Please model this.
Amino acid sequence: MAVDFDLACATHGDLPALVAAGRFRADLMYRVAGFTVALPPLRERADRHALIARLFLESGAAARGLRLEDEALEALAACPWPGNVRELRSVLRSLVALAEPGDAIGLDALPANLRAVSAMPAASVRDDAGPGFGGPPPLVAITRQAIAQALQDCGHDVAEAARRLGIHRSTVYRHLARERGRPG
Model:
Protein backbone atom coordinates (compact mmCIF):
# COMPACT_ATOMS: atom_id res chain seq x y z
CA MET A 1 0.00 0.00 0.00
CA ALA A 2 1.41 3.39 -0.98
CA VAL A 3 1.60 5.99 1.75
CA ASP A 4 2.10 9.70 1.16
CA PHE A 5 2.95 11.87 4.16
CA ASP A 6 5.03 14.78 5.32
CA LEU A 7 7.16 14.53 8.41
CA ALA A 8 7.70 17.47 10.74
CA CYS A 9 10.37 17.14 13.43
CA ALA A 10 11.49 19.40 16.23
CA THR A 11 14.68 19.40 18.26
CA HIS A 12 16.62 21.72 20.48
CA GLY A 13 19.84 19.97 19.44
CA ASP A 14 22.33 20.99 16.77
CA LEU A 15 21.93 18.03 14.40
CA PRO A 16 25.12 18.61 12.36
CA ALA A 17 27.12 18.77 15.60
CA LEU A 18 25.41 15.63 16.90
CA VAL A 19 26.21 13.83 13.63
CA ALA A 20 29.85 14.96 13.88
CA ALA A 21 30.00 13.64 17.45
CA GLY A 22 28.51 10.31 16.35
CA ARG A 23 25.37 10.80 18.46
CA PHE A 24 22.90 11.11 15.54
CA ARG A 25 22.77 9.17 12.28
CA ALA A 26 23.83 11.24 9.26
CA ASP A 27 21.45 9.45 6.89
CA LEU A 28 18.53 10.22 9.20
CA MET A 29 19.52 13.88 9.48
CA TYR A 30 19.50 14.22 5.69
CA ARG A 31 16.01 12.72 5.59
CA VAL A 32 14.50 15.00 8.24
CA ALA A 33 16.43 18.22 7.58
CA GLY A 34 15.05 19.01 4.12
CA PHE A 35 13.79 22.39 5.29
CA THR A 36 14.94 23.84 8.59
CA VAL A 37 13.28 26.63 10.54
CA ALA A 38 14.95 28.00 13.66
CA LEU A 39 12.39 29.14 16.22
CA PRO A 40 13.58 31.15 19.21
CA PRO A 41 12.54 29.94 22.66
CA LEU A 42 9.55 31.75 24.13
CA ARG A 43 11.71 33.58 26.67
CA GLU A 44 13.67 35.22 23.82
CA ARG A 45 10.69 36.36 21.76
CA ALA A 46 10.16 40.11 21.66
CA ASP A 47 6.43 39.60 21.05
CA ARG A 48 5.82 37.27 24.02
CA HIS A 49 3.29 39.60 25.70
CA ALA A 50 1.14 39.66 22.56
CA LEU A 51 1.64 35.93 22.04
CA ILE A 52 0.58 35.11 25.61
CA ALA A 53 -2.50 37.32 25.29
CA ARG A 54 -3.45 35.70 21.97
CA LEU A 55 -2.91 32.15 23.23
CA PHE A 56 -4.96 32.97 26.33
CA LEU A 57 -7.91 34.04 24.17
CA GLU A 58 -7.47 31.02 21.88
CA SER A 59 -7.42 28.70 24.92
CA GLY A 60 -11.09 29.43 25.47
CA ALA A 61 -10.85 32.67 27.43
CA ALA A 62 -12.63 34.68 24.73
CA ALA A 63 -15.58 32.29 24.66
CA ARG A 64 -15.88 32.46 28.47
CA GLY A 65 -15.43 36.25 28.69
CA LEU A 66 -12.21 36.00 30.69
CA ARG A 67 -9.64 38.77 30.96
CA LEU A 68 -5.96 38.51 31.81
CA GLU A 69 -4.94 41.29 34.22
CA ASP A 70 -1.73 43.18 33.45
CA GLU A 71 0.11 41.85 36.52
CA ALA A 72 -0.68 38.25 35.51
CA LEU A 73 0.41 38.92 31.93
CA GLU A 74 3.68 40.44 33.19
CA ALA A 75 4.27 37.45 35.47
CA LEU A 76 3.63 35.01 32.62
CA ALA A 77 5.95 36.97 30.32
CA ALA A 78 8.69 36.98 32.98
CA CYS A 79 8.73 33.19 33.31
CA PRO A 80 11.59 31.36 31.59
CA TRP A 81 9.24 28.64 30.19
CA PRO A 82 11.66 25.72 29.96
CA GLY A 83 8.81 23.75 28.37
CA ASN A 84 8.38 26.56 25.85
CA VAL A 85 4.99 27.17 24.18
CA ARG A 86 3.66 23.72 25.16
CA GLU A 87 4.15 24.54 28.84
CA LEU A 88 2.59 27.99 28.41
CA ARG A 89 -0.46 26.55 26.63
CA SER A 90 -0.93 23.99 29.37
CA VAL A 91 -0.89 26.71 32.04
CA LEU A 92 -3.30 28.90 30.04
CA ARG A 93 -5.72 25.99 29.50
CA SER A 94 -5.67 25.32 33.25
CA LEU A 95 -6.35 28.98 34.05
CA VAL A 96 -9.30 29.01 31.66
CA ALA A 97 -10.69 25.72 32.99
CA LEU A 98 -10.51 26.85 36.63
CA ALA A 99 -11.97 30.34 36.12
CA GLU A 100 -15.61 31.30 36.35
CA PRO A 101 -17.13 32.92 33.24
CA GLY A 102 -16.39 36.64 33.16
CA ASP A 103 -13.50 36.43 35.65
CA ALA A 104 -10.43 38.63 35.51
CA ILE A 105 -7.38 36.37 35.87
CA GLY A 106 -4.96 37.98 38.29
CA LEU A 107 -1.62 37.07 39.76
CA ASP A 108 -3.31 35.06 42.52
CA ALA A 109 -4.82 32.67 39.95
CA LEU A 110 -1.42 31.66 38.59
CA PRO A 111 0.16 28.41 39.80
CA ALA A 112 2.34 28.93 42.88
CA ASN A 113 5.56 28.07 41.09
CA LEU A 114 4.93 30.83 38.52
CA ARG A 115 4.04 33.36 41.20
CA ALA A 116 7.27 32.49 43.01
CA VAL A 117 9.33 32.98 39.84
CA SER A 118 7.66 36.29 39.02
CA ALA A 119 8.19 37.55 42.58
CA MET A 120 11.93 36.85 42.49
CA PRO A 121 14.24 39.67 41.55
CA ALA A 122 16.07 38.63 38.39
CA ALA A 123 19.47 38.98 40.06
CA SER A 124 18.60 36.57 42.89
CA VAL A 125 18.13 33.71 40.46
CA ARG A 126 20.94 34.64 38.10
CA ASP A 127 23.45 34.74 40.96
CA ASP A 128 23.36 30.92 41.01
CA ALA A 129 23.95 30.72 37.27
CA GLY A 130 27.68 31.22 37.44
CA PRO A 131 30.06 33.80 36.03
CA GLY A 132 29.40 35.12 32.56
CA PHE A 133 25.87 33.71 32.36
CA GLY A 134 23.72 36.09 30.37
CA GLY A 135 20.74 33.91 29.47
CA PRO A 136 17.63 32.94 31.36
CA PRO A 137 17.96 31.53 34.88
CA PRO A 138 18.58 27.77 34.97
CA LEU A 139 15.69 25.57 36.03
CA VAL A 140 17.65 24.30 39.04
CA ALA A 141 17.99 27.83 40.42
CA ILE A 142 14.31 28.58 39.82
CA THR A 143 13.29 25.34 41.53
CA ARG A 144 15.59 26.01 44.48
CA GLN A 145 14.20 29.53 44.93
CA ALA A 146 10.54 28.46 44.54
CA ILE A 147 10.83 25.65 47.09
CA ALA A 148 12.77 27.83 49.53
CA GLN A 149 10.17 30.60 49.24
CA ALA A 150 7.25 28.17 49.67
CA LEU A 151 8.87 26.60 52.74
CA GLN A 152 9.47 30.03 54.25
CA ASP A 153 5.89 31.12 53.52
CA CYS A 154 4.54 27.95 55.18
CA GLY A 155 6.74 28.06 58.28
CA HIS A 156 8.75 25.12 56.90
CA ASP A 157 5.66 22.86 56.77
CA VAL A 158 6.75 20.56 53.92
CA ALA A 159 3.28 19.18 53.20
CA GLU A 160 1.77 22.67 52.95
CA ALA A 161 4.64 23.98 50.81
CA ALA A 162 4.27 21.01 48.46
CA ARG A 163 0.52 21.60 48.20
CA ARG A 164 1.04 25.27 47.36
CA LEU A 165 3.62 24.37 44.71
CA GLY A 166 1.39 21.68 43.24
CA ILE A 167 3.95 18.92 43.78
CA HIS A 168 4.15 15.85 46.01
CA ARG A 169 5.85 16.31 49.36
CA SER A 170 8.37 13.57 48.52
CA THR A 171 9.63 15.89 45.77
CA VAL A 172 10.30 18.58 48.38
CA TYR A 173 12.04 16.05 50.63
CA ARG A 174 14.24 14.88 47.71
CA HIS A 175 15.11 18.49 46.95
CA LEU A 176 16.02 19.14 50.59
CA ALA A 177 18.19 16.02 50.70
CA ARG A 178 20.03 17.12 47.55
CA GLU A 179 20.51 20.61 48.98
CA ARG A 180 22.00 19.19 52.20
CA GLY A 181 24.59 17.31 50.13
CA ARG A 182 25.35 20.36 47.97
CA PRO A 183 28.56 22.26 48.72
CA GLY A 184 27.72 25.68 50.08
Observations:
- DSSP finds ten helices and two strands in the chain.
- The mean pLDDT is 83.
- The beta strands are 67-68, 104-105.
